[in-house]
Write a structure and sequence with these properties.
It is built from four helices and 19 strands. It is mainly beta and 337 residues long. It folds into two domains: 154 residues, Competence, DNA-entry nuclease inhibitor, ComJ (Substrate Binding Domain Of DNAk, Chain A, domain 1); 128 residues, Substrate Binding Domain Of DNAk, Chain A, domain 1 (Sandwich). The strands form four sheets. Strands 1, 5, 6, 8, 9 and 10 form a six-stranded mixed β-sheet that branches. It has a five-stranded mixed β-sheet with strand order 11-15-19-18-16, with no helix packed on it. β3 and β4 form a beta hairpin.
Amino acid sequence: MVNVDVMYHHYWFTGEDDVDEPEFGDLGTISAVGGRAVVNTFTESGPISLRVLVGDHAPGVEEESWQSEWERVSEVTLDAPESLQVCSWEYAPSDPPSGDVVRAGRHHLRLHARGEAKVRDDAYVATALEEHLVLVWPADAPSRPAGEGPRWDEVTGVPVVPYSEGEPRSWFGPVKVPAGHFELRWRGSAAAPEPGSEAPALIPGTGVLGVAVGLRGITDVSVEVREHSPGDQTWHADAVVECEIEADRPLRLLDGSGQLPRGVPDPLTTAPGRWGVRLYARHREPDYGQIMLIWPCGAPTRDEADRARFAEDSSYDEHEWGDRDSWSDEIDGPDGY
């Protein structure tokens, strides 16, 4: 859970920063206001505890059983013209959770609220006494298949920027691959595609990318999320495979048993978007481990970005730095990009 400040008994799920004042509903409920939702809180002013879970199926039997733990449960369906964010009473994005909860579209929101007796008639509370749980799913999604447990992505805030000042952010650690593959996932319950053979491959699915490494057991994996395209960068590998993915949520790396590997942050990337993924597979020499690069599609290489930056720099001294056109396009070693 995270704390969100409220005032005048409400906060929003909205993508707009200029909306008419709503007619509020009962305290502890959620109301639709056009393509937005206003949450009416027991707390008049101060922090509340909020947990937001986003799923790709409607709640099933287990989620229905959660309702008995809460004092109020209410629901709305929205046709959101823009991505929804959690916003404070003056429509400013809260922090946390921050960033888009879901993209524009038709969504269903279920609010669970409790803590009315704790808040009482206090006009202001200094610590969170009220708790909210909000489930969000596509309005036309079917219920979760019988026998399949709930899987939801928790929205806790925009992840740490994966790169700073042009440098990649890297992680390295052992990853279990009992069936010869692991996955990049951005939807909680999407079925991971099975590799057709033991050859290294990247296998796109709905909400998940299967990563087949051509071996079983445990392998070291180095993951780099980059600001720039790696271009033609090459490292020693038995096979190099590459693909593009369109992810509407931050990427997560999970091992072959669906668990988060030790030392790998969750999630990996900052925002939804289109990403390039390249795997340098070392299945014949597993002691070398695997290398995976992830970068925004369409991004320039580091060299192209530097050339563009210097081309726009009126203070560039050609006598000191030389003719730009004479620069080499070669990459200096495995760490250059």
